[in-house]
Amino acid sequence: MIMNFRRNWQIYRTVQELNSKSEKRNPMFEKNKLALCLILFTLVFYVVYLIMIGLVLLPGILTDCFPGMEPYHMLHRGMIVLPTIDFFIRYMFQQTPSQQVKPFSLLPINRDTIIKCYLIKDITRFYNCFWFSMLLPFACVTIFKFYGFGGIFGFLLGWWMLFAINSLFYLLCRTLSKHNILWILLPIATFAALCATAFYFDFVGRLLIDFGEGFILWNPVSFLILILIISAVFWINIKVQKYFMLDELAGNTKEKSLKKVNTLTFFNRWGEIGEYLKLEIKSAMRNKAIRKMYISALCIVVIFTILLGLSSVYDGISFMSDFIGLYCCTVIGTMTLTGIMGVEGNYIDGLMVRKESIYSLLRAKYYYQCAIAIFPFLIMLVPVFMGKLEILTLLSYLSATIGLVFPAMFSLAIINKETIPLNNILTASNRNNKYIQMLVSFGSFSVPIIICRSINTLTDSNAGYIFMLVAGVASIVLHRRWLMFIYNKFMKRRYENLEGFRKTISN
Amino acid sequence: MKIRIKDIQKTFGEKIAVDIPDFTVNDGVILGLVGNNGAGKTTLFRMILDLIKPNTGEISISGTVPAEEEGETTDVCYITSNTEEWKKYTGAYIDAGFLIDYLTPEEYFSFIAKIEDIDIETINQRVASYEHFMNGEILGQKKLIRDMSAGNKQKIGIISALLHTPKIVILDEPFNFLDPSSQSIFKRMLKQYQQENNATVLVSSHNINHTIDLCTEIALLENGKIIQHITHVDEKAQKTLNEYFNVY
Fold it and tell me: Beta strand B217-222 with B225-230: parallel, antiparallel or unpaired?
């Protein structure tokens, strides 16, 4: 047994080492490092913010609203809320781990062991302690005086285990939803059911208070329940991950033929641009990884449209309607363009030996993205008809997306040098380090809103929207100029980028 | 069309990948590049095709230097710069990274036709002329390139390099993955292509017999250097290569 443990520990260390090497030897490492610094810098603000909430705001509010109850009782009463928020934040920022099982597949190592290593790595990720920036000060203020350090430690351990469950559940949901988008309903239904049960049934609330107090008191029952849940989600994860991974590895060798080959002759009238437009469409239709991106983005648009247009969740919160309006317009672009040229990285050598094809490719890509951006616009007309969103707001954000966000995303073509695997979702390598893309994505749906709302506040009118509309249209008119600029910059860096693309092609 | 290599050096870290002071590939020859693994064959091809930048020196194709730094095109109009000229008369296939694998072979050939400004009828005729080489396994299969065998992918790559009838053809290890009969057909096909178009052909291979059969000249590469340039391929050349590679 000890030998077995030592062997597994060795495998775990090897997997960790491989991941670390994969990150350090990634062609985007230097740029990712810079982006990561910026992200960490932003994170520090949030940590300070959470410390303030944990130290002052949360204990104060809970004491005022629930006199006679200790704040930590009430925090545990609403125990589901924090993991719910945490889970959906993970959806926005946590990347699904690429599981580089291929190199191990021919070695005499149990595949379950490899998957377990990845899952343990997921549990021990630093992000699972992120909320401690709020919970630790909260515990110092409310728990320390009764239970001392032991109480604080138990409280943090219990919450860490909750976040570990969340992390594993997130991994499970992401894996499932990558294979069938309907699985996105699983976390929605789970958290909705948990929240409804916890708040509707009083006895469940009381159970949660006792359960949470068990952390502080080091009650073995509370921890045993958590260990059982972690073990169950861990076990389900192993089964699911293994199933899809084997399916993916086997899929590459399956004999397939198309039922119908769509020639898209309609696009022939636009010559070379039309040919690249065909490539964009076929790439989205025939490559699993790309197709999933579009479907996921459209699902997000539909969910937000329903929340904004057909429910009263965001009624009267103008910031949220603004945010959703912009987010829905940009989400497809940000999801599919952050890795711009990454798809072409798979066959970039073939393109580069043919005459100036990259400029036509960039133009076609832009026209295609403009056409695609119309879909969220049309879907978002529902909240407009329901009177939840101004048509001017929506038009200005559409214009900002096509005219301002897209140039920013397209400029990533200059620095991107990482090939996107077209069909592999789980076994792809080098897809863990997208910090720079994350930063640009974040900027794409935050900067326009900041500018727009600042102008609106300063002028006390809708001038911000009009500014966005005009600026966007001006940039659209000048698109060939900025695309040529990007093309020139791309060509200047071509050798470096081509080397990166070649290094990251997954075979 | 000539390819002139002058003072080319390429290093990867400490390792010298290619180091060729002066070498010319003359018009209308079939040059075979042979050498052990890591000799620098593929790197040299990639440098000729402007896919890798040499540390020093330059390569010119018919007088044009592909790697020449071009000035920024400030005009919005789409201008083909001089340094792009060589692409019109150069066809190459290095590896599967040249193929758009989510297309069917027909779609890929038609894509090349559009990019190279060739009408679809002409392309269809040219593709049809390689029917024997394709052996009925490529066209009309309703299969994406990625779902085809390695040999068929290789055939698609080779054919796509020849479709715009380039005057310079560069093929890296074209015999790889091909079955013996396809190898034989390919040799005849390439010889015929060279004669019909008076093309300059560069082929690398680890197969000495095929290289001897196909090529009119052979360059032997070792650690990035051309250590021998055989201009008359005969029995003596075969003996030299056999001795070098320890093949008895």
Answer: antiparallel
